[in-house]
Write a structure and sequence with these properties.
Layout: E1 9-13, H1 18-29, E2 33-38, H2 41-50, E3 56-59, H3 65-78, E4 84-87, H4 102-127, E5 134-139, H5 142-145, H6 152-172, E6 176-183, H7 189-192, H8 198-210, H9 220-231, E7 242-245, H10 249-253
Parallel strand pairs: 1-2, 1-4, 2-3, 4-5, 5-6, 6-7
Helix pairs in contact: 1-9, 3-4, 4-6
């Protein structure tokens, strides 16, 4: 695979597992120097080991302004600039909307929206020094575009991320490109650890696959390929865009 990102510095949040890990491994495979950020140091270390171990890891709770300030400060001290920021950290919550407490909504928004915006704005000075321009890619969700019952907090937070993307693209062009990727149902640990026997989990995954016109659920590598395109110079005239990577789930939900 060509080294499209040789000499580039990329920071990936939510890199400890799932989609974030897949994105980190894809960009690293094409030459990017990686900074992995996530809540759990042990999971970040697992990702780093899969990538050969020569990776910087920062354990941080991105719902904390202090943690975001520390991450941005360390980036400035160690590197002096940033080429690619992928905001993949996020949490999911589900349940009947009439049973949601304000604290439940706040918990989701604090990570999926407020933390994302806070870290991104703190990294702007470094992104403006990116070569030839800084790139921000926000990982949203198909549910931001086509909400379903029982996912009010999550859908609302991801819809807000899409709005943030368009706002920042308008404000920061041409120095910084900002785009969104909207994955569908992706095979990540959160789904395989949802409870039940292995047979029950397998049945659930098969049911989810049947809802996609492509007749399979996504893999982290599917989303990573889309992110790699948006991060590359091949997408140099793409900003404020939403790239749906969902195996057709959105059209099936309409």
């Amino acid at each position: 695979m060509s080294g499209r990102f040789e000499g580039k510095i990329a920071l990936i949040t939510g890199a400890g597992s799932g989609i974030g890990r897949g994105i980190a491994m894809r960009l690293a495979s094409e030459g990017a120097r990686m900074i992995l950020v996530g809540r759990t140091a042990a999971k970040l270390a697992e990702t780093a080991e899969l990538m050969g171990g020569i990776v910087d890891c920062e354990a941080a709770d991105l719902s904390s302004a202090e943690a975001n300030r520390n991450v941005a400060g360390q980036m400035a001290d160690r590197y002096g600039h940033l080429d690619i920021l992928v905001n993949c950290a996020g949490i999911y919550a589900a349940g009947p909307s009439d049973q949601i407490e304000p604290t439940d909504i706040e918990a989701v928004l604090s990570v999926n929206l407020v933390g994302l915006v806070d870290l991104t704005r703190r990294l702007v000075p470094l992104l403006r020094l990116g070569r030839p321009s800084g790139v921000v890619i926000n990982v949203s969700s198909t549910l931001a575009l086509t909400p379903v019952a029982g996912a009010l907090s999550y859908s609302a937070s991801k819809a807000a991320v899409s709005a943030v993307t368009e706002t920042l693209a308008a404000e920061w062009g041409p120095q910084i490109r900002v785009n969104t990727v909207c994955p569908g149902f992706v095979d990540t640990p959160i789904h395989r650890q949802r409870g039940g026997t292995p047979t029950e989990v397998a049945k659930f995954l098969d049911q989810m696959a049947s809802r996609h016109p492509m007749r399979r659920i996504g893999q982290p590598e599917d989303v990573a390929a889309a992110v790699a395109y948006l991060a590359s110079d091949e997408a140099c005239w793409v900003t404020g865009a939403t790239l749906v990577v969902d195996g057709g789930l959105r059209v099936a939900l309409r």
